[in-house]
Design goal:
With 215 residues, this protein is of the alpha/beta class. The protein is built from 7 helices and 6 strands, in the order αβαββαβααβαβα. It has helices spanning 12-17, 34-43, 84-90, 106-110, 112-122, 146-155, 171-193; strands at residues 20-28, 56-65, 68-77, 96-102, 128-134, 159-162. The longest helix is centred in the last third of the chain and has 23 residues, at 171-193. It is globular, with a radius of gyration of 18 Å.
């Protein structure tokens, strides 16, 4: 590259201000597949062995939506009750929240209501919330019907998705639709404010991105 050493081709603050940062949070009972969904989206991988998330896990991906490169930060929050205080700190600044249940586990579906209450209580900024029925590849073990889940989502005015982290079915489409909705919402807010959108880095800025695993 032909440039004077130590001199950037673009002002640092100008370059950073044009980046679009998106924060997505995944919640739901332990064992529903939140970690696997994020891993599949970020790395196109699936791990059959179950290891419960301790506290919080993290994923990152640059995803193009409507010709814009989004810096997507995905926070995978443990579903264990003992990490409630940890979760509550990380809802702040979320652009979207996906609540996952296991279609083979009626208990995880019944817990959706409590997860909705938690998200609405601690999240700020009116994030988009969606319901995700995971493990649809286990057809013979399925006990929660699509109709039942769609009715729940409709009752709360949330969108509903079905996925399989094992096969990848529906995973990319789910995240793509979430990100598209977030972009459209941000664009609308910008127009209302008659100003250019500059995202606050907050918990997922370049200087504060780190991988958390154990608390």
């Amino acid at each position: 590259m032909n440039r004077t050493p130590g001199h950037l081709t673009k002002n640092y603050h100008e370059a950073v201000s044009t980046l679009v940062w998106i924060k997505i949070v995944g919640i739901g009972n332990a064992g529903t597949g939140k970690t696997c969904l994020i891993k599949h989206f970020c790395e196109s991988k699936f791990s059959a062995g179950y290891q419960p998330t301790v506290g919080v896990d993290y994923g990152f991906k640059i995803q193009t939506v409507k010709n814009t490169d989004l810096r997507v930060h995905l926070w995978d929050l443990s579903g264990s009750a003992e990490y409630l205080d940890v979760r509550n700190e990380l809802y702040c600044g979320s652009d979207a929240i996906f609540i996952v249940y296991d279609v083979t586990s009626p208990g995880s579906f019944e817990a959706l209501e409590s997860w909705v209450r938690e998200a609405n209580r601690y999240a700020t900024g009116n994030p988009d919330i969606v319901i995700v029925g995971n493990k649809v590849d286990l057809k013979q073990k399925r006990v929660v019907s699509s109709v039942e889940a769609k009715d729940f989502a409709l009752l709360h005015n949330y969108r509903y998705f079905e996925t399989s982290a094992a096969t990848g079915d529906g995973v990319d489409d789910m995240f793509q639709q979430i990100l598209t909705a977030v972009c459209e919402k941000k664009s609308t807010n910008c127009q209302k404010q008659s100003s250019e959108y500059i995202s606050e880095p907050s918990l997922f800025s370049p200087s504060s991105v780190f991988r958390l695993k154990v608390f």
